[in-house]
Amino acid sequence: MCVKVACVGGGPAGLYLSILLKRQDPSHDITVYERNPEGSTYGWGVTYWRALLDRLHAHDPESARAVEASSVRWTQGVAHVRGLSTRQPGDAGHGIGRHKLLEILADRARALGVRLEFDHEITAANVPDADLVVAADGVHSALRTHHAGHFGTELTPGRNPYVWLGTTKVFDSFTFAFVETDHGWIWCYGYPFSDERSTCVIECGPETLAGLGLDRACEPGGTAESDALARLEKLFAHILDGHPLTGRAAADGSTSWLNFRTLTNRTWQRGNLVLLGDAAHTTHYSIGAGTTLALEDAFALAAALRECPDLPQALARYERVRRSELLSPQSAARYSAQWYENLDRYIGLPPERMFALLGQRHSPLLPHVPPQLYYRLDRAAGQLESLRRLKRWLGPRLARTAHARELASRE
């Protein structure tokens, strides 16, 4: 159907969409435009779960085999709090370096005949002439921003600042560490993405950041940044085992504290322009689903273009399907972020109970039930079918009510 496609943005979503479209019809003329040079990317490792890997194998076995071979796997989570630690089994998780993932997808796209134009920035002034233009250029999408009024773009900042770091400490599990300071709690999420490195995302409340003086470490490469990394290494020495922390793997190597911004759009399409991945929506990093959701956008858009007779129908179907599928992960992300924003509610529990409720942080019931009571009810629900049914019935209703109140408060 779409003879000529211009994909703006060479991240996972844009590259994988080009792979899917070429596999559907090798005659498609597809070009991916990326503003950065090839091989330069930000971030450290990304996470995904077995369900995504199964879908990758179903859609393109060759790239899926390469992704799986370059990934590390874990089956446990561990939490450290107040000098104690507790482990729990969990679903099989996978980590892969962002740089490696992009390399695999770029090589596969080229092999299928996709043109990759690196160091080529696309703005509203030089939009390529194409049947379909895909804005897959991230949360700061230039094409979406130019038409922000049409798309109805909203960015809602979260409360807690966070920083994205790397380390040569290779964690054997998905690792949480909560450290109490004189200025409040600070915590990290750590996970491996290769046999040599792990990602460390560190988060705290704004008052803790200021109290520790970490908000002043904002100049890349400066003394303030070095001091901040040294202080963080000291705070998390019990899990780093002497390994250093490294600033964000961006072009400038900066260590920037950010506030996560949840992005939504009223519509994802404008004529032959459509939004994909983080250009269309974001979900809080604490559920580890950003890359998965972006790739699932690519699955849905490719399917819609294959099955619908014309472009407007295809884009409308893509948006309708993905909006429906995103309801559950977006709800989970909201509750997950709120769990950490209300950490004091849970941190006083015995570590094994706190960790159990950490695993339940996506639940819309949890904010409305005293933590100790929720823990006991959840344990009982594991043994009584009637309680499991009540939990499944009540949870979505509370989620819809809370979401409706949130929307009403914005009006």
What does this structure look like?
This protein is of the alpha/beta class. 42% of the residues lie in helices and 24% in strands. It is built from 14 helices and 15 strands. The strands form 2 sheets. Strands 3, 4, 5, 8, 9, 10, 11, 12 and 13 form a 9-stranded mixed beta sheet that branches. A 6-stranded mixed beta sheet has the order 6-2-1-7-15-14. α2 packs antiparallel against α3 and α3 packs antiparallel against α4. The longest helix is centred in the C-terminal third of the chain and has 31 residues. The two termini are 40 Å apart. About 1% of the residues have low confidence.
Summarize the structure.
The chain is α/β, with parallel strands linked by helices and 411 residues long.
